Amino acid sequence: MESATVVLYPCPIIGHLVSMVEIAKLIHIHNPLLSVVVFITPAPFETGSTYKYIDNVSATNPSIAFHRLPTVSIPPDFSSDFIDLAFGIPELYNTVVHDTLVTISKKSTIKAVILDFFSNAAFRVAESLALPTYYYYTSGASGLCEFLYLTTIHSMTSKNIKDLDIYFDIPGMPPIHASDMPSVMFDRQTDMYKNFIDTSSNMAKSSGLIANSFAGFEERAINTLRKGECITNGPTPPIYLIGPLIVSGNRVDPSENECLKWLNSQPSKSVVLLCFGSMGVFKLEQLKEMAIGLERSGQRFLWVVRDPPSDDENKSNSGGKELSLEAILPEGFLDRTKEKGLVVKNWAPQPAILNHDSVGGFVCHCGWNSTLEAVAAGVPMVAWPLYAEQKMNRVFLVQELKVALALKMSLDGFVMAEVLEEMVRELMEGVEGRTVRERVLEISVKAKSAMEDGGSSRVDFLKLIQSIDLGLR
After folding, report:
1. How far apart (Å, rounded) are the C-alpha atoms in residues 27 and 23?
2. Cα Rg of the chain, angstroms
3. What's the rounded mean pLDDT across residues 445-470?
4. What fold does the segment set 4-248+451-470 form as a domain?
5. How far is CA 254 from CA 212, 269, 339, 349, 370, in A?
6. Short-list 326, 363, 331, 365, CA closest to 343
7. Which family would the database say this protein is a member of (predicted)?
């Protein structure tokens, strides 16, 4: 029998890579005859602990082959902005990707290429080789509605989004104010804006669109996508909702981990977790304000703190030396709150924490991976968006999906101590908090059902596998 291969091309940052690898695992489960090759691109930016993660996956899932692409030189005048790099690096790699795909095809039939949206440049390569090409949108159905509608927004106005004081009426979504749109879309003269528009256009021409969501969660957005209402100038490719894709195999020994041991001694549903992703960094002034708010709230808390950025953006903080918690937080804070709170530096096993019985709330940055982890665990949220599409996610989570409470922020994103105090207390004890708590528990049941045999996400994934097997373009 002739061998067949699916090639996955993720963005190398850990959040995107992990989510894409979950697709690789599912492919192997549902069709072990399909070989899976994951392209790994060397990145000139911080990606998180990707190499350790890849080594762990390789050891436990030998059926998944990671192909590290060779390093290519980056022009000296290349933008150092993360979004520009995330889109631009794949552009530099198109020749390498072309040659690698040709080499693979000499030994095996490439049934499909699945691109991260940041890997959009490779769409031209796959098209030139007549390969069925799918896009994996790492966020949910609501965000995908916006992404596909970008070309329509682009044609509706010649102004920059940052200069507009309007609400966008995007199919499948609540009204989105211009200021809540992803900041990368604010200025239409930038390369990042042009890359997002180009990606939106290519998505509409692809063999299919895969999103990390599930039936019963984003119903209005899902129905709108299925009806093809977000692409106004042509047909919509098949939509596959296969989530929640949450990291599997990430086991943490509760007898060894400080956070889990501490949680074991706390009452059920009494602890609020504060964790803001791998890029969630706050200035020192904000960290101190957060500490004051937490202490005044009287709630039990587990808080993951990263070092604040240096005042000089060109230098790392403290000359590269990690600061102590005592140097970051108000004097005496750790002693005063030691009976009710635990503060840890840099990292904590977030999925395991969210699934612990003692955790009853989550203050988070509205990143989609964290959102799904919370929803699947049945933990309500306070939405504190920081970057990327997170302000838009806040609108979905608070207004549409009703699994989070909004946090009042200043125009520059600063949150006062009394605001955090009030919202943490409301989430854990208040009437609005109870409504959100009840809602997220309902969604949690639907999330589990979606991923079971016969569940909506499993059915969609089988449709995706059938499409790949047939080699549909």
Report:
1. 6
2. 22
3. 96
4. Rossmann fold (3.40.50)
5. 28, 18, 20, 10, 20
6. 326
7. Belongs to the UDP-glycosyltransferase family.
Beta bridge partners of 135: 115, 209
**4-248+451-470 shares its CATH topology with 258-448:** yes
Dihedral of CA 143/438/414/313: which sign?
negative
Which residues have a Cβ under 8 Å from the Cβ of 446 and sit 6 or more positions away? 214, 215, 216, 217
Work out the number of other CB atoms within 10 angstroms of the CB of residue 195. 21
Question: Which CATH number is 258-448 given?
Answer: 3.40.50.2000
d(CA 9, CA 192): 19
Please count the residues of the chain.
473
Domain ranges of the chain: 4-248+451-470, 258-448
User: pLDDT averaged over the chain?
Assistant: 94
The helix/strand/coil state of 17 is: helix
DSSP reduced 3-state for 205:
coil
Tell me: pLDDT of 110 over 80. yes
Place of tokens 């695992």: 25
Q: What are phi and psi of 146, to 5 degrees?
A: -65, -45
Amino acid at 290: M
Res 271 pLDDT > 50: yes
Which tokens belong to 192?
Answer: 């990042």
Band (pLDDT 50/70/90 cuts) for residue 320 is: low
Nearest to 374 by CA among 359, 385, 358: 359
The helix, strand and coil proportions of the chain, stated in percent and rounded to the nearest 5, come to: 45, 15, 40
Dump strand ranges (E) for 80-237.
109-116, 133-137, 167-168, 176-177, 208-211
Reading the block at residue 268, the tokens are 């059920």
pLDDT bucket at 470, cuts 50 / 70 / 90 = confident
Q: Decide: helix, strand or coil at residue 372.
A: helix
